[in-house]
């Protein structure tokens, strides 16, 4: 049984609220005098705030654009009221002070903006490039096994928010999580999925059963073993969470191979940073072409094999599927051979035996898979 769901990232406040800081400075005075834990410098195109260990640069248009006053920002909807296109691109504050832990700017025309120093620090580019968007524990088989992560229990999972929270914490850290004792029905599987998030409609439907009957134009509907891969790489927005439940199993086989693609990517970055960069900045196409009596589909997704946030180079998504990878015609000739060499080194890392985690789903055991991290092999149910 397979479902797909989208789950928004859980955000936490990384910085506490800061208390009083008082500093007075006139616009013409380039450097403030020290009177608190915060100092600032007014430069031609930005304000430089010294608050903590790292100087932070704030563009003046950015500051006006991010004003949180009632006329500029709707706190109830968390949406901007201000028309960014109306801001003078040469705007400068007439007066700048730090009062009671806030940076206070008075703009031409008299509008006043107040920013918490903690909020500025949290949302500065300098801060964002130093912290992870989503903290993770990268693992091979030994690391994951020794972590001894307990599965959630069906009854408790469906009735206790703390059990769901624990499940999600494991999922966010490791990319996979399990629920045991789920009734082997489509309805129970759907209930588990909806306990976590919404179910996304796809060309396969919302919930669907599959077996090795070739009912769809995909190798997954066969008894052929599949090498490690990520699914729906041909979607412009690949699935966020993929949920599997074995409803019935007769015969042999049926094991699933999981590999942490992020772990392998970081290994590649350490060993061959230039190969990592090539895989991270070279877009390729994946496509799904289905032409059967009942289904006609052609979908294309474009993106690098390894996707990173440009501001901190953190890996956030992987598109690795040798089955669905389309014709490579997006890489110039002088880089193509180097791309294949980089792809081979990443593939070699993914295939190391010590990186393989083998599990077998049985009726009642549901696996939630961080679809962009774990790489399932064939299930042969």
Features:
381 residues; alpha+beta; 4-stranded antiparallel beta sheet; disordered N terminus; disordered C terminus
Quick recap:
This protein has 381 residues and is α+β, with helices and mostly antiparallel strands. The protein has helices at 60-65, 117-123, 125-128, 141-147, 154-159, 161-174, 186-196, 261-271, 273-281, 333-350, and strands at 2-6, 23-26, 39-42, 46-50, 55-59, 73-74, 79-80, 95-99, 102-106, 112-116, 152-153, 176-180, 198-199, 207-208, 241-245, 255-258, 283-291, 296-304, 306-308, 315-318, 357-360, 366-370.
Poorly predicted spans: 1-36, 371-381
Mean pLDDT comes to 82
**Morphology:** globular
* Helix content bin: 10-25%
Protein structure class: alpha+beta
Computed CA radius of gyration, to the nearest angstrom: 26 Å
Oligomer: single chain
Q: How large a portion of the residues is in β-strands, by DSSP E?
A: 25-35%
Strand tally: 22
Our measurement of the CA-to-CA distance between the termini, rounded to an integer number of angstroms, reads: 10 Å
Report the major sheet. 7 strands, mixed
Instruction: Specify the number of helices.
Output: 10
């Amino acid at each position: 049984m397979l479902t797909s769901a989208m789950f928004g990232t859980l955000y936490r406040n990384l910085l506490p609220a800061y208390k009083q800081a008082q500093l007075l400075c006139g616009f013409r005075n380039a450097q403030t005098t020290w009177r608190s834990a915060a100092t600032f410098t007014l430069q031609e195109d930005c304000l430089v705030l010294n608050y903590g260990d790292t100087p932070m640069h704030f563009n003046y248009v950015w500051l006006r654009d991010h004003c949180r006053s009632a006329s500029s920002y709707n706190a109830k909807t968390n949406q901007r009221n201000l028309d960014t296109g109306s801001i003078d691109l040469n705007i400068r504050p007439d007066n700048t002070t730090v009062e009671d832990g806030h940076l206070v700017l008075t703009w031409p025309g008299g509008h006043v903006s107040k920013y918490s120093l903690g909020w500025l620090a949290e949302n500065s580019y300098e801060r964002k490039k130093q912290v992870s968007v989503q903290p993770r524990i990268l693992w091979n088989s030994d690391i994951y096994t020794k972590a001894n992560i307990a599965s959630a229990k069906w009854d408790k999972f469906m009735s206790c928010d703390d059990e769901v929270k624990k499940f999600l914490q494991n999922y966010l850290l490791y990319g996979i999580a399990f629920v045991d004792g789920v009734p082997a029905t489509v309805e129970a599987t759907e209930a588990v999925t909806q306990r976590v998030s919404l179910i996304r409609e796809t060309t396969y439907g919302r919930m669907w059963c599959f077996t090795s009957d070739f009912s769809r134009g995909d190798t997954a509907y066969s008894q052929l073993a599949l090498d490690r891969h990520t699914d729906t790489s041909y979607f412009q927005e690949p699935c966020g969470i993929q949920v599997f439940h074995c409803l019935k199993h007769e015969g042999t086989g049926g094991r699933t191979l999981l590999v942490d693609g992020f772990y392998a990517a970081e290994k590649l970055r350490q060993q061959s940073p230039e190969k990592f960069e090539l895989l991270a900045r070279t877009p390729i196409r994946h496509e799904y072409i289905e032409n059967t009596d009942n289904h006609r589909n052609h979908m294309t997704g474009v993106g690098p094999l390894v996707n990173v946030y440009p501001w901190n180079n953190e890996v956030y998504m992987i598109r690795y599927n040798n089955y669905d990878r389309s014709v490579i015609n997006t890489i110039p000739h002088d880089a193509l051979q180097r791309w294949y060499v980089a792809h081979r080194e990443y593939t070699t890392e993914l295939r190391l035996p010590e990186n393989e985690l083998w599990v077998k789903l049985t009726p009642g055991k549901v696996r939630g898979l961080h679809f962009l991290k774990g790489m399932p092999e064939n299930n042969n149910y």
